[in-house]
Amino acid sequence: MNIEVKTAKVRPQSYAGDLAVHFVREGENDGPASAGAEVRELVSRAVAAGDFAGKEGQTLLVYPGGRGPKRVLVAGLGSEKVTPELLRNAGGRIAAAAGKTKTEKLLVTLPAAGLPPGEAVRALTEGLVLGAYTFRKHKSQADPEDEGGELREILFPAGGGAAARTGIAWGRAAAAAVCAARDMANEPANFMTPTRVAELARDLAGRYGLAAKVLGKKELEKLKMGGILGVNRGSAEPPTLSVLEYRTGRKAPTLLLVGKGLTFDSGGYSLKPAAGMHEMKYDMCGAAAVLGAMQAVGELAPPGLDVVAVVPATENLVGPAALKPGDVITQYGGKTVEVMNTDAEGRLILADALAYGIERYKPDFVIDLATLTGAAIIALGHHRTGLLGNDDGLAARVLAAGEAAGEPLWRLPLGPEYGKQLKSRIADLKNVDKRDGGTILAACFLQEFVGKIPWAHLDIAGTAWDFTDKPYIPKGPSGVGVRTLLELIRGWK
Known about the structure:
By secondary structure, this protein is of the alpha/beta class. Helix content is 35%, strand content 18%.
């Protein structure tokens, strides 16, 4: 996203850009105090006519005369407490208005009361940049029905000092990372291949000074990663496993992030229905979230945690050598798995990545993200991510981070009574049982490869796309998980 966000010493009334934005609370009938007399008079008239009341979600576009901005947008914040999520939503609505008016440069005056300036600027920056997101890469010509402009500059009036500058930096980096994750997910599977995922990891390493390692098919064979190799057997595209390391240079705990990178999932011989199969290019949204988070970590260099990312990537297709239901594979570390359903493949590649990452990097905490089960959508719809884990403290941290990021989660149980369902008659484990409790059973399978290390599993199947309708989240991929991870890392103590 090529949007510059900064503070500037400029009075809103004399700002000469395309659009100036002010906020009002419900009941402030005289208009925003930060605006000039003419704008306040226009707002008062709209209130008197019953066309505007300052309710949350309401906006009023006016065209004052004089030498000020071309347009002024007044955004309502309602009467409830001002929260970061309220301002993110407001930022999304402002971005939509900017697109419709083909605004390239805008100024946003902070609300008079509510959050501290640094928090307010951060939330607004996230909402504005995320709300301005579009993906037009593969359009050969302009779409006449696409009326949106391209936002290039966002100014906040000077004030707030270092806290405001920090807020802008975090908000801009977090939003850019989410947009990068959305871009990855929006790419067709013939563009976003396992090789391309590895290239993006290397690009991030070069840009931000991260340590990088990419394992190709030969290396995976030497390590006996039967999960990744087994899922890959039906594809002409070779698998990859990418590792990125961010080190603080201090004595800090290590967080291991693992993201599922199924760049296309046909279901294999347990074939998915044709309707909706095109959306299975989104089955790498866990990988996209992890790489997006590493982009922001590399840019912002948070001091409290070392972070290692492991991203296994492959396709799951039908072919002469593809896995068959009933086949037995050997995962990294030696456990054998009877593959009862080839469409339960994500857990097979995650098992290898988790076991490898834990053994190789000795992390203190582990979090994986995956579009893992349709059962998560049945249980939670498209409004909350499923959270499962073996450590109450880590689970609480992740829940709090998701709430702060506007990406809520819901914790589901784990227990040995579920794990018993995965015992196989001919191997150590089977990858599925009957459909009951499918999200929990998938997490139980992963738990077999985690051991006792504090671990949290985020099933983003219902939130990675078609997420809750919000002004700053477009149709299609949401980029969910990126800001939750960053919120967790930013606040780590």
